[in-house]
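>> Question from a student workshop board

For tomorrow's exercise we were told to take the sequence and the ligand below, predict the bound structure, and bring the output to class. My setup keeps failing. Could a helper post the expected result so I can at least see what it should look like? The ligand is L-homoserine.
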Amino acid sequence: MNELKIFSPATVANVSCAFDILGFAVEKAGDRMTFRKTAEKGIRIVMKNYRELPTEPEKNVAGVVALAMVEKRQPGFGILIEMEKGILPGSGMGSSGASAGGAAFGVNKLLDEPFGKTELVQFAMLGEALASGVAHADNVAPNLFGGFTLVRSTRPLDVIPLHTPERLSVSLIHPLIEVKTKNARNILKKSLLLKDAVIQWGNVAGLVSGLFMEDFDLIARSMHDGIVEPVRSLLIPMFDELKQAALDAGALGCSISGSGPSVFALSADLATAGEVTEAMRKIYAETDVPFETYTSGINKKGIRILNEIND
Ligand code: HSE
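>> Workshop helper replied:
Here is what the output should look like for this input. Compare the format with yours to find the bug.
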């Protein structure tokens, strides 16, 4: 393959109680990326929008991933990566994860797929480390695997694709303010009480079981985060009101998407998710906070090839 264009989906990390270990991919929001072999060796990045993002490969989230992969394989060609971001950096919807996961996927294709999916997650984590200072995998794993994906461990990396109930849908509201993951991590407490951890473990296990059993009541009972959400929600305008409106409109649960400021809610079907999005929209419509919303199915496939050129 000499050239390919992909859609790299947005992701919702943490899914309320499962900080740093669980995420899912979104059907409707994502980046587009094109990868082309070049005669001149090395990695070249072109930003088609968000031109303020660095294009030096070693400073670019996709670039560091591509550099590590070609370093390992030493191909006899170079790679040009064109990036068109559909997910705003600092939105909490896995913007850096989409760039990093997309780069791992696209470069692997041009190299004739020497790496398996878990290895691609490992490479993509380099991009996350550059973006946030921490090589978390709960965005890049669902970006590459699709659906709900558990990161049981990062050292060694152990990625477990989970069952995704067919009709489960997501509402997202993105206040157009930037929250840097690095900052949203720095404000978190470094330790917690055992009794709080026990409650959180129960909820994580309940959420994962609920997904496998397609038990929406169990999912709803489990979507509670008593550790991270109370701290980070202070950065999000009207968070409590958004959450209450989502739950009143029928959402199973509602929390912060990744490190915020986006807020997500899960619903049992797309129609309910539409009503939930509308309920959250009404909260912000009465403020001067600029925002955008999405109502979407869960993306079960992850990154999608839009077209490929073989010669
Ligand atoms: N798990 C990460 C965090 C996700 O919450 O900091 C960042 O999108």
